[in-house]
Amino acid sequence: MNQNSSLPVLVDWLLRHALPESYRESALGDVSEEYQRRKQANTLNALIWLANQTLRVCIQSLSGVLAARAVVVFLVLMTVFLLPTTFLMVVWLSNMEGTSPSLLEPLLVGDMHRIVIQPAFWQEAYLITDKSREAHMFINVEALLWSALSMTILLLKQSKLTSNQLAALGMSLMLVPYLWGMLVLGMFPPGLRYIGPMLAFTLFCLMYLAVPVSALVFWHKNREIKAAQCKGVTGG
Amino acid sequence: MSGKHLGEFEQIVLLSLIRLNENAYGAAIRQLLHELIGRDVAIGALYSTLERMEKKGLVASKLGEATAERGGRAKRFFSITAEGQSALKRARNAMDTMWQGVSIFAGVRAL
């Protein structure tokens, strides 16, 4: 519907995008009417009122969008944390010549999560940022195979699962190698010389799967929301 | 008893519809709430409440006339349904019952 708005262009655009379609036109009409009435009394006050209403509608809309996509927001935040952390960890492990005892002890049993929370790791990681970062350092065939298998499972299962279930399955497939690594290394510590391949596998599984799992859940969630909206429109 | 319990804001909005009668649309409801109880309700919050109550069958709506000051957009008039009236009565009865024997200043009177 393309009508004369009587609202400032930016406000009209924001409200048009933030208000749900079901009551968009009526609400826009109400805002226009009240804005015109207030404007006759005091233009500045009318603009302040309009800005306030627009902001509140935008916040309400944004919180609704985030609440509906809580699982996607969680996955995106997890990816934002995981990607640089695993990247740094790979560079750190690949260039390591020695490390502090506080990092060595969890490293030997595969508890990488305990390493990440120690300031010593970030100090050491910062110091090696200028060291070698060749592409082959970031290729791990076993992790690539696991990631391909995981994505195949997710793609095959996605039509039967809700986005929350898909996210849970995706995160499980990401975490299984890590938990397996922790378990095996904790029970049978192989020593520093042989620990590398296993740690690499667990870290690369997290690194390779974070983005595709998040993207798949994001796409699935959007499809789910659109389907629910269509159902609401046809049902109502 | 059907379990449609009303929140405080829902009760206020339903009462506004009764007070405004034939003229209950977004801007008028907002104005009434501001004048009577000093509450500045966001237009989005008002409409999402009305829409939720409409889905529950407590409220009905119909489109009215469009005016120039509304940018050519139609008003959406709301009215309370019989089910909405019943829910409102139940909410009032529940509150009346809970208030019996209670004084905010004296606390709960010994029964």
Tag the structure with descriptive keywords.
heterodimer, A: 236 residues, mainly alpha, B: 111 residues, alpha+beta, 17% strand, globular
Please tell me about this protein's structure.
The complex is a heterodimer of chains A (about 240) and B (about 110). Chain A has about 240 residues and is an all-alpha fold. Chain A has 10 helices and no strands. In chain A, helix 1 packs parallel to helix 3 (about 45-70) and helix 9 (about 165-185) packs antiparallel against helix 10. Chain A is elongated. Helix content of chain B is about 50%, strand content about 15%. In chain B, the strands form 2 sheets. In chain B, strands 1-2 form a two-stranded antiparallel sheet. Chain B has a two-stranded antiparallel ribbon with strand order 3-4. Chain B is globular and about 55 Å long. The interface of A and B includes residues 33 and 53 of A.
Summed up, what is this model?
Chain A has 236 residues and is mostly helical. Chain A has ten helices and no strands. Chain A has helices spanning 9-18, 24-41, 43-68, 70-94, 101-108, 112-116, 119-127, 141-157, 163-187, 192-235.
Average pLDDT, all residues of chain B: 89
Q: Tell how many strands the DSSP assignment of chain A holds.
A: 0
Distance between the termini of chain A: 20 Å
List SSEs of chain B in N-to-C order. HHHEEHEE
Helix count of chain A? Answer: 10
Structural class of chain B: alpha+beta
Write the layout of secondary structure elements.
The complex is a heterodimer of chains A (236) and B (111).
Chain A: H1 9-18, H2 24-41, H3 43-68, H4 70-94, H5 101-108, H6 112-116, H7 119-127, H8 141-157, H9 163-187, H10 192-235
Chain B: H1 8-20, H2 26-37, H3 43-55, E1 59-66, E2 74-80, H4 82-99, E3 102-103, E4 107-108
Antiparallel strand pairs in B: 1-2, 3-4
